[in-house]
Design brief:
The chain is 24% helix and 27% strand. By secondary structure, it is an alpha+beta fold. An 8-stranded mixed β-sheet has the order 4-5-3-11-12-13-10-14. Strands 1, 7, 8, 9, 15 and 16 form a 6-stranded mixed β-sheet that branches. The protein has a 6-stranded mixed β-sheet with strand order 26-27-28-25-19-29. It is globular. The N and C termini lie far apart (81 Å). One of its GO terms (molecular function) is dimethylglycine dehydrogenase activity. Belongs to the GcvT family. Its main location: mitochondrion. Keywords: Acetylation, FAD, Flavoprotein, Mitochondrion, Oxidoreductase, Transit peptide.
């Protein structure tokens, strides 16, 4: 048998509570939820199969001031989406759900159209629909082997015979780990015991004329919905009480398991039961008729793993769906569109299966799954950090020197300093929707880089080496920029076939035909998979190696950088001796390394690529050499502020698979006239010919104690006109600033708009970028001024 693509699936429909909601804190996961609900609304008419879809709406309850802030924060991230969502008053909440105790209720987030669906009926309807359009379904069909063929296809061994497929999709639920093991993967998925309680008929519920909306009591950490004439509610226990089915990780899922449930434990959830009884008093007199306990598959960060997998050509995953059936329809559409067109229909990198790697060990996975389950209803602050399972085996050569001095962030398994402590600072992780303890110290670090010299650990960058006879030919096909000559560096972009930005990469040719590629930490294997796929399908005679874990990176930036480094090397570090965007092998403090004159702060700077084992030696030598010049550390928060002041775009914010490079203002890096037919070239030529409908604008804002961070709604005359992509406070110019996508007719300098932050609309204006000139530009202008008569 031959199939174009084969989905290997598993299910446990009868256990799931079947909740459906438009809401999701993730920007594009809202689209997944939206597509699911729209499919479920039409599924019965299309297939003739009833699905038991109830849509009474849902309300997320805020019972503390910080929860109200959270709801306002989510609202500004939703206005520019089609998701129906409103912030509602206690009076409206009581009207919609008259059985609530309103003593603690301050506000609610209301999504009309939310509700619940019968998972079994949904599954049958989806299967019926699939058959209508030609799909073949084999059930049961135990997969006993997966064998790749030379041409990128797969032979799938089943009791029904061997099926050859162009690609396979692992969609096997809590069997996902075992299916992955057939080809050498250890997918970080683990089943969690989730319980929900079902009551007998409640007279007050039976007396209602309309179905109650689903409520989610965020402080109580449970959901509650109507079930016939009774109630159903499910809690999320804290880390110390929840249960992992870790034996399945060790020994596999028991043979024949499919419709069984776990033994329930009401004592484990009594704390939440009592909170539910306080919020919905009719529960106190309700008879419990069932306590259901079954498996839900979790990943370390709670998000699913969706898309093609690196290191296994044409192997895709759709696993780890802790959110349940609300993802089914939208993810099915997302994957189908990607398979058909060759590119993702929208950016969903937070669900990329390649965000995990060899550092994702079983102990880490278990610790994070416990944390994520308990965090289901924890306040979702900006710049959120979660600390279970850290650090992983991925620590840079200077981690031990820095860990006690900084607030660390987590980036693809790495620990990286966000900001550094000084005497008198309020230390530690203090999340807030407004300016918090890091605001002052980050300003201090920006001043350091602008006036003296600072050092930052950039080790989490993804790093690849591409070499071989066809190396330049491959890269010319992949990237829209021309390839740098020997000893030079440039910024290049990989585009999708329709001309959207798949990745931004720094490329250096450091030996003839040998290129060093640097990408962001969060897109390491995401980018490597794209490169490897093109290399295989070319085919190209190249060797591609991932050296991310082998090489440490230190960034040194500021006006005194050259003076510090010159103390430690014989290499000429002068402006004429070591030019901007040049790369050289140098010996620094007795250590051989590679230096690139570049800095993402926009100031005079170098990036030093150092063997991990020598990183601490080089760092300590630099810090000692710079003592008399005021050298100090700085972190990623300061770098973000500085890059925004210079007008630098960031991948994943200003550019991603939702944007094209022309609207993002990346024209300088896109060489439409280069000879090579790079991926996306024809599409970009067409986009350019038709003209743009929106463009990235640079805006300043009048705020108080809150700053933009990206994805906020932009308003004009009471209408939504755009969204921010990233934002920060400019310490150099003493104002908030952001990038925002706006219609082209609103992009002129001086255009006034409003940006919504925490429910308030702040005045904003489009300004000429950048606010602060980069060091190379300032130097060039100074030289020009000196040479003028």
């Amino acid at each position: 048998m031959f199939w174009s693509w084969l989905s290997i699936e598993g299910s446990l429909q009868q256990f799931i509570a079947g909740l459906t909601t438009y809401y999701h804190p993730g920007i594009n996961l809202k689209k997944v939820h939206y597509h699911s609900i729209k499919l479920y609304e039409s599924l019965e008419a299309e297939t003739g199969q009833a699905v038991g879809f109830h849509q009474p709406g849902s309300i997320r309850i805020a019972s503390t001031p910080v929860r109200v802030d959270e709801l306002k924060y989510q609202m500004t991230r939703t206005h520019w989406h089609p998701t129906p969502q409103w912030l509602i008053t206690p009076e409206k909440i009581q009207e919609l759900f008259p059985l609530l105790n309103m003593d603690k209720v301050l506000a609610g987030l209301y999504n009309p159209g939310d509700g619940h669906i019968d998972p079994y009926s949904l599954t049958m309807a989806l299967a019926a629909g699939a058959r209508m359009y030609g799909a073949q379904i084999y059930n049961p069909a135990l997969v006993s082997g997966l064998t790749p063929t030379r041409d990128g296809k797969w032979d799938v061994q089943t009791p029904h015979g061997t099926i050859r497929a162009n690609r396979i999709v692992n969609a096997t639920g809590f069997w996902a780990r075992e299916v992955g093991q057939l080809i050498g993967f250890e997918h970080p998925t683990i089943p969690i015991h989730h319980q929900y309680v079902v009551t007998a008929t409640v007279p007050e519920v039976k007396a209602l004329k309309t179905e109650l909306p689903v409520i989610r009591d965020l402080e109580g950490s449970y959901y509650l919905r109507q079930e016939r004439d009774g109630l159903l509610f499910g809690p999320y226990e804290k880390e110390d009480k929840m249960v992992l089915q870790d034996s399945w990780v060790r020994d596999g899922v028991p043979p024949g398991f499919g419709k069984e449930l776990f033994e329930s434990d009401l004592d484990r959830i009594m704390e939440h039961v009592e909170m539910a009884m306080e919020m919905v008093p009719v529960l106190k007199n309700a008879d419990i008729i069932n306590v259901v306990s079954g498996p839900i598959t979790y990943t370390p960060d709670l998000l699913p793993m969706v898309g093609p997998h690196q290191a296994a050509r044409n192997y895709w995953t759709a696993i780890g769906f802790g959110y349940g059936v609300i993802h089914a329809g939208g993810i099915g559409k997302f994957l189908s569109d990607w398979i058909i067109t060759g590119e993702p229909p929208f950016d969903l990198i937070e669900c990329d299966p390649n965000r995990y790697g060899k550092w994702t060990t079983v102990p880490y996975m278990c610790a994070k799954a416990r944390e994520s389950y308990g965090f289901n209803n924890v306040v979702g602050h900006p710049k959120e950090e979660r600390f279970a399972g850290r650090p992983t085996q991925r620590t840079s050569g200077v981690y031990e020197l820095l860990k006690g001095k900084a607030s660390m962030g987590f980036h693809a398994g790495w620990e990286q300093p966000h900001w550094f402590y000084k005497s008198g600072d309020e230390v530690g992780y203090k999340p807030n929707f407004r300016r918090t303890n890091w605001f002052g110290p980050v300003g201090r670090e920006c001043k350091l880089v602008m006036e003296k010299v600072g050092v930052i650990d950039l080790t989490p960058f993804g790093k690849f080496i591409v070499k071989g006879k066809d190396s330049q030919k491959l890269l010319d096909r992949l990237f829209a920029n021309t390839m740098p000559k020997l000893g030079l560096t440039n910024i290049s972009h990989m585009l999708t076939p329709t001309g959207r930005v798949y990745a931004e990469v720094t490329i250096t040719q450091h030996a003839p035909g040998e290129f060093l590629l640097i990408t962001g930490s969060g897109s390491e294997l995401h980018d490597l998979r794209w490169i490897e796929r093109e290399a295989a399908e070319g085919p190209y005679d190249v060797d591609i190696s991932n050296v991310t874990d082998d090489i440490g990176v230190l960034g040194v930036a500021g006006p005194k950088t050259r003076d510090v480094l010159q103390k430690l090397t014989q290499e000429d570090m002068s402006d004429s001796g070591f030019k901007f965007l040049h790369c050289k092998p140098i010996t620094l403090a007795g250590i051989d390394l590679r230096a690139i004159r570049i800095s993402y702060t926009g100031e005079l700077g170098w990036e030093l690529y150092i063997p991990q084992k020598d990183m601490a030696t080089v760092y300590q030598a630099i810090m000692e050499a710079g003592q008399d010049m005021g050298i100090d550390n700085f972190g990623t928060y300061a770098m973000s502020s500085l890059r925004l002041e210079k007008g630098f775009r960031g991948w994943g914010a200003e550019m991603n698979c939702d944007t094209n490079p022309l609207e993002a203002g990346l024209d300088y890096f896109i060489k439409l006239n280069k000879t090579a037919d790079f991926i996306g070239k024809a599409a970009l030529q067409e986009i350019k010919a038709k003209g743009l409908k929106r463009k990235l604008s640079y805006i300043t804002m009048d705020t108080d104690n809150v700053d933009p961070e990206g994805n906020e709604t932009v308003w004009l005359n009471g209408k939504v006109v755009g969204n921010t992509t990233s934002g920060a406070y400019s310490y150099t110019t003493q104002q908030s600033l952001a990038f925002a996508y706006l219609p082209v007719e609103l992009c002129s300098v001086g255009q006034r708009v409003e940006v919504e932050l925490l429910g308030k609309k702040y005045p904003a204006m489009v300004v000429q970028e950048p606010l602060v000139l980069t060091e190379p530009t300032r130097t060039r202008l100074q030289k020009k001024a000196k040479s003028s008569p």
